[in-house]
Specification:
Length: 345
């Protein structure tokens, strides 16, 4: 985790510095990384590079799937943790935040993170198909046909990255059939709004079936503030009561350890922050670590950046008793002065 996840920046001389003409602009919002600057510098990619990037992503998906099928390693434990917590892998959709720019380097951490989300969608879609018609969707596919469009129809991915470049957006939409969001309101966009803009017969059926399916927020290595905003926007999905409408599916999060945040947060001001819903839920979380660095010996070349992509990531689910009232946090509203917003810079 980077230090800027923990530091509130109160003032800076940077506001007085003039930006050099033609210099790469840092991307605003909740996510920052060197990849963002690289993307701003490299712009869109040519057709040959697009093909290389596309093939590399598929290589990563296939490598992760082989790891899953081996019954050990990160991919296997990730699927196993989600499957056991989500009532035998019943996911309604996957919301992906904070991947960064995946086109800047082949087999980069961002590319591996994207591949992990696409593999999850493939496996959940196959499970959904098996449950629906009794057939094995995985074995019915043609060799090399990953059926991205069919996967998206069964288990949609909603994807937001503030620094996405045109070639990446085009590839996500046209090749991998991912629904890209124009904004996510700093993590406060409700998943119900995402569904409204991407309605399908499957989703309508899922709405009628009530809260039996989970929403997975796939957020490896995001800032704490983004987790808090997602929690605030989906409080009724976590603290579910019998009176809540069936459209509130329970949520799970794949990302940084909430327990680690709790242990490292020593500032009394941060602990008293009324917008921090994450700390309020720490007593009610089930957290499963799915990444073990020592297993990364003899990995396929496409997985060589696994440490940077998934270290310290966990699957987090919530078990708040219906009779136990947890006060909802207040909404986070950024300051008009961007230098008061810490990690939002």
């Amino acid at each position: 985790m980077s230090s800027d996840e923990w530091t509130i920046i109160t003032k800076s001389n940077a506001r007085n510095r003039k930006q050099k003409k033609g210099a790469a602009q840092a991307c605003p919002g909740l996510y920052r990384s060197n990849n963002h600057v690289a993307a701003a510098q490299h712009g869109d990619v040519d057709s040959k590079s697009k093909e290389q990037i596309q093939n590399a992503i598929i290589d990563c998906i296939n490598s992760l799937e082989r790891q899953y099928q081996s019954g050990k390693g990160f991919a296997y434990r990730l699927i196993d943790a989600i499957s056991s917590d989500a009532d035998n892998f019943h996911l309604n959709e996957i919301v992906v935040y904070g991947i960064g720019n995946f086109s800047t380097e082949l087999y980069s951490p961002s590319m591996l993170q994207l591949a992990g989300a696409l593999l999850l969608r493939r496996l959940v879609a196959a499970k959904f198909s098996n449950d629906s018609d009794g057939t094995n969707a995985a074995t019915n596919q043609k060799d090399g046909d990953v059926s991205f469009r069919q996967d998206q129809q069964r288990v949609p991915i909603y994807y937001y990255e503030p620094c996405i470049v045109g070639a990446e957006k085009e590839m996500l939409q046209e090749v991998f059939c991912v629904h890209t969001l124009e904004n996510n309101d700093m993590g406060k966009l409700p998943v119900f709004n995402m569904r409204q803009n991407n309605a399908t017969a499957l989703q309508q059926d899922a709405e009628k079936n009530g809260g039996s399916r989970y929403t997975l927020f796939y957020m490896p290595h995001c800032p704490m503030r983004l987790y808090c905003n997602v929690i605030w926007a989906h409080w009724d999905h976590i603290c579910i009561s019998e009176m809540v409408n069936s459209r509130f599916h329970p949520i799970m999060i794949f990302g940084n350890s909430f327990h680690a945040y709790d242990e490292r947060m020593i500032s009394s001001d941060q602990r008293m922050d009324p917008t921090n819903g994450m700390l309020r839920l720490v007593p009610f979380i089930n957290e499963k670590s799915v990444y073990i660095s020592s297993e990364n010996r003899d990995l396929e070349d496409s997985l060589r950046m696994m440490d940077r992509a998934f270290n310290d990531c966990n699957v987090i689910s919530f078990s708040v008793d219906k009779d136990f009232v947890v006060e909802k946090p207040t909404e986070y509203v950024p300051s008009d002065d961007p230098y008061q917003n810490g990690e939002l810079l």
